[in-house]
Design a protein that fits this description.
- The complex is a heterodimer of chains A (269) and B (416).
- Chain A has 9 helices and no strands.
- Chain A starts with a helix and ends with a helix.
- Chain B is α+β, with helices and mostly antiparallel strands.
- The chains are: A mainly alpha (269), B alpha+beta (416).
- At the A-B interface, helix 5 of A face helix 2, strand 6 and helix 3 of B.
């Protein structure tokens, strides 16, 4: 292969890479504008009722599954950490290790992933169906701003529900660790709670809540955006496009939760 | 003519490479029903969506009372939008909301009216649309016709000045189609809005339209009244009307207009001097009927008239077509006016003694036995020859109209 041909191939590769990068930047810009407008419209009139309704769907209705997952996560942590710590003769610090793991990392991350699976997918599917059945156009024709009516309450409800459910997750997870560590494996009950009290401080709790707020924005905006613009997909139309959008929303949200978790953690440390 | 309420000037709209509107220019006048016809996929809905701002033109201007909408200030644009309602082809009702919530939604979200006032407005519209029993149901629990009525109620609840109807009759049976079109005409008169309608429901939609626009290959190929359209001999219009019009009129089962013309030419094709014919134009007094009995009963009278006309004159070689919303035109070949008059009286007796009392009874059950209303059918006879034009015969028959069957307050009265 001559150098001229190699140069042309390299230029084509660069062109395609540049085009793809521009597309990603373009999409990120669109998502940012979408979020900014929807966030500002949270503070408009007639939003309280819609927000309360969405807190019920996103928060209250997800609480059972979140707490069930929290309980077993805490129980598994209690088991695993007990057998690890006992090798070093440090099983007395079990309470603090379980609590810090949950409050700093697992609580916000697993809560966000559970809400994505339960409520995020429903958001995308519902908004996607509204889009393909022209109900969003109908809102526009009735002079009802679809962003204000559909998206803003979901973002607000996520910002309220994620930290609350994360708090529940942390609490139930600590109780799960207590069940296995104290009741099953015989760690001292007083030591379990004393270590939590000694080692967990407000910085850890604040960090967990900051993460849960970041995840709330990521999940709600990703899921709403995917549903809202489901009609612009070029790979499928109608019901198929809603199904693909829902799958994409869940996958992208989960990946973004883990990526942003690393970024936020590195800033908090 | 007055300044148009809405005007399109050389509006072009492309989707990728496809040109859907190609320098389309049109005018929509206040307090009129303007019907847009055209082949499926010709861009009729795209045109309608431009009016309300769901789509914007790539080129050209849309004017509201002479002012380009794209140059309006935000408050003017909001004011313009507040005057318009849109009824979607698939109704676009919110599945998760009850009928009441669907109708109340625009009032709750865009006005500061009290809860009580909103409730009374919704109840009032629901009663007018015969939806009072369905208010707590969800759209999925309703029939297609009822869903249309809910969509219509939602479109009208804000008292709009302009209502855009995107194929309101699609998927409905012939009687239901006529009821919806009658409702549009009736409510237009009652509430005084300007209606823009897309419909394939020919000929019925013509009978309620003040102006017709034909969208053909992205351009407005015709605009004018139904009479102008039917008089205009243009291959494109003929092709369109023939492609969309069936062999039979869906509502009455009589011949379609095109088939009627073709049969008329064949019957008189010999051109012999003894080819005498008699034409009878029957007319149901529609407006009074609609007001008294409701749209469905009015449509039933037209249907019954069509059936009786066909039953009596069909075996004698007669053929008929619906000429307008409440008019049926019959040709009796080789029968003179005197003999045709006797036949018509016999038919009128059957119509009066069977069909009208039946309709009166069913309508009476709905509106109360004490209600006093009148159903009347008139007819005009004229004799013609092989050289007479159909329109001329219709004009002459129209002039000779006399009441042949009447039902008033439960009392038969056949005046001849």
């Amino acid at each position: 292969m001559g150098s001229a041909t190699r140069n042309i191939s390299f230029r084509i590769y660069l062109d395609s890479l540049g085009a793809r990068t521009m597309k990603v930047i373009d999409r990120l810009g669109a998502v940012a504008i979408f979020f900014a407008f929807a966030f500002l419209k949270i503070f408009r009139r007639r939003q309280i009722g819609e927000i309360i309704q969405q807190v019920f769907y996103i928060g209250a209705k997800s609480s059972n599954i979140v707490m069930l997952v929290a309980l077993f996560t805490g129980m598994v942590l209690g088991l695993q950490l007990f057998y690890t710590l006992i090798k070093f003769g440090s099983e007395g610090v079990l309470g603090s290790v379980v609590a810090l793991t949950l409050i700093r990392e697992l609580g916000p991350v697993l809560t966000a992933i559970m809400i994505t699976a339960r409520a995020g997918s429903a958001m995308t599917a519902e908004i996607g169906v509204l889009r393909i059945s022209e109900q969003i156009d109908a809102l526009y024709t009735m002079r009802i701003d679809p962003l204000r009516f559909l998206i803003s309450p979901r973002i607000a409800a996520s910002l309220i529900s994620f930290p609350l459910l994360t708090a529940f997750f942390d609490l139930v997870g600590i109780i799960g660790g207590y069940l296995t560590g104290v009741l099953l494996l015989g760690v001292n009950r007083g030591a379990y709670f004393y270590r939590i009290h000694s080692y967990v401080d407000m910085t850890d709790i604040r960090g967990g809540f900051i993460k849960s707020l970041v995840f709330a924005v990521i999940v709600s905006v990703t899921c709403c955006y995917m549903g809202y613009f489901t009609h612009l997909r070029t790979d499928a139309y109608g019901a198929k496009s809603v199904s693909l959008s829902t799958t994409s929303a869940v996958v992208v949200s989960c990946v973004m939760i883990l990526v942003s978790d690393y970024v936020v953690t590195s800033f908090l440390m | 003519m007055d300044t148009p309420l809405i005007e399109f000037r050389d509006v072009t709209k492309r989707f990728d490479e496809k040109i859907v509107l190609d320098k389309a220019s049109l005018s929509i006048y206040e307090n009129q029903i303007t019907t847009i016809i055209g082949k499926s996929g010709s861009g009729k809905s795209v045109l309608l969506k431009h009016i309300i701002g769901l789509l914007s033109p790539d080129e050209g201007d849309i004017l509201f009372r002479g002012k380009p909408v794209n140059k309006m200030k935000r408050s003017e644009w909001d004011g313009y939008r507040s005057k318009i309602s849109y009824m979607f082809q698939n109704n676009a009702l919110f599945d998760s909301m009850s009928v009441f919530e669907n109708i109340a939604l625009p009032l709750r979200q865009t006005t500061d009216l009290s809860k009580k006032k909103i409730e009374s407005m919704v109840m009032s519209r629901s009663e007018q649309m015969d939806l009072s029993d369905a208010l707590n149901k969800y759209p999925a629990e309703l029939s297609g016709g009822m869903q249309k009525r809910v969509a219509l109620a939602r479109a009208l609840v804000t008292d709009p000045a302009i209502v855009l109807f995107d194929e309101p009759t699609t998927g409905q049976d012939p009687i239901r189609k006529n009821i919806i079109l009658s409702m549009v005409a009736h409510y237009r008169k009652q509430f005084g809005f300007t209606a823009v309608l897309i419909s394939h429901d020919i000929p019925d939609v013509f009978f309620i339209s003040d102006r017709i626009l034909l969208l053909w290959e992205g351009k407005i190929a015709f605009h004018g009244t139904y009479e102008e359209l039917s008089r205009l001999k243009h291959p494109m219009i003929d092709e369109f009307l023939q492609s969309i019009e069936g062999l039979r009129d869906e509502l009455t089962g009589l011949l379609s207009k095109e088939m009627f013309r073709s049969r008329y030419s064949q019957t008189l094709g010999g051109g012999s001097a003894d080819n005498v014919i008699t034409a009878i134009l029957f007319r149901v007094h529609f407006e009074r009927l609609s007001e008294a009995l409701g749209h469905q009963a009015a449509i039933e009278v037209v249907k019954a008239l069509g059936e009786y006309v066909h039953k009596y004159f069909g075996p004698l070689g007669g053929f008929s077509a619906r000429h307008s919303r409440g008019r049926v035109f019959t040709i009796l070949p080789r029968i003179g006016a005197e003999e045709a008059g006797l036949l018509m009286l016999e038919m009128a007796k059957g119509l009066q003694s069977n069909a009208l009392p039946e309709i009166q009874a069913s309508a009476g059950r709905r509106i109360g036995v004490e209600a006093c209303f009148e159903i009347s059918v008139s007819a005009g006879i004229t004799e013609g020859g092989p050289d007479d034009d159909i329109e001329l015969l219709i004009e002459r028959a129209e002039e000779n109209q006399k009441i042949i069957a009447r039902y008033q307050c439960g009392k038969e009265d056949g005046s001849q």
